Amino acid sequence: MQSFHKVVEADFDAVNRLIVAKLHSDVDLVENIGQYIVDAGGKRLRPLLVLLAAKALGYQGQQHIELAAIIEFIHTATLLHDDVVDVSALRRGRPSANAQWGNAPSVLVGDFLYSRAFQMMVGVGNIDVMAIMSDTTNVISEGEVQQLVNAKDPDVTEQNYMAVIHKKTAALFEAACETGAVIAGVSSEQRASIKQIGYHLGVAFQLVDDALDYHGNTESLGKNVGDDLAEGKPTLPLIYTMAQGTPEEAALIRTAIQQGGVDKLQQIISIVRERGGLEYTMRCANRHADEALTLIDQLPTSPFQSALADLTRFSVSRSI
């Protein structure tokens, strides 16, 4: 167990119990698929952020447990939908739900998890939380659509790419932190500051994920290496490498993005490494992690503040 888990271990266990309880459905298939993907584990960084943010800001109640489960349900719903869109066969080291049950059940159970999350939000009864989460789910959807539009387009710019990862990944990290601040009842300035921590942490985390797609291994990633290239996703390692490489190297990568597939994966990995695409992506990730750490230093000193810093460092420690 990581250090940032330990300081909220009891709360984290309570979140996991609540997730299991709220997965209940009269329709067996709903419960089976929901349980399958939740049982696969994952890092659960987003619900952890809710717990740590609320506690770091002095929250003493119990609503952070429910908010953390809500965040995890929304994240899980996006995973179910993403795997259908991306035709992914692996998720968290196991066959994806769509590979196991098919696309239609995966999409519909994703919808169930979204709606269950909003049922739980009504139970929390905080209009600010409802506003944050409804806006966030809308932004995530926009990010997913934009990523779909960008697929197989080698002319996507770094600016466009960063806008997409903000929407599809960092937005939920922001929401996790901000909802924790809302229930803690802090000032608007503190709320904005901790939301920024979520933004920088989420961007850093996604940048590392995108770098690892050209360096990691299937076992540690929980998905197939080269999945991004297979789907024609122009992520930062490729965008940078096309700008820095020879015309021939850029043309090879452009063609691979346009066509999808991994026929040239090993050759492209070599080019990305030689042209500094991985190092550049990791520098960007570390810059965002440093921004988050600067803001975390401004929080009141506590074990929860320290755990937030540890979580931030962990997000970029999966080094290349």
From TrEMBL:
<keyword id="KW-0460">Magnesium</keyword>
<keyword id="KW-0479">Metal-binding</keyword>
<protein>
    <recommendedName>
        <fullName>Octaprenyl diphosphate synthase</fullName>
        <ecNumber>2.5.1.90</ecNumber>
    </recommendedName>
</protein>
<dbReference type="InterPro" id="IPR000092">
    <property type="entry name" value="Polyprenyl_synt"/>
</dbReference>
<dbReference type="GO" id="GO:0106350">
    <property type="term" value="F:all-trans-octaprenyl-diphosphate synthase activity"/>
</dbReference>
<dbReference type="InterPro" id="IPR008949">
    <property type="entry name" value="Isoprenoid_synthase_dom_sf"/>
</dbReference>
<comment type="similarity">
    <text>Belongs to the FPP/GGPP synthase family.</text>
</comment>
<comment type="function">
    <text>Supplies octaprenyl diphosphate, the precursor for the side chain of the isoprenoid quinones ubiquinone and menaquinone.</text>
</comment>
<dbReference type="GO" id="GO:0046872">
    <property type="term" value="F:metal ion binding"/>
</dbReference>
<keyword id="KW-0808">Transferase</keyword>
<dbReference type="GO" id="GO:0008299">
    <property type="term" value="P:isoprenoid biosynthetic process"/>
</dbReference>
<dbReference type="Pfam" id="PF00348">
    <property type="entry name" value="polyprenyl_synt"/>
</dbReference>
<dbReference type="InterPro" id="IPR033749">
    <property type="entry name" value="Polyprenyl_synt_CS"/>
</dbReference>
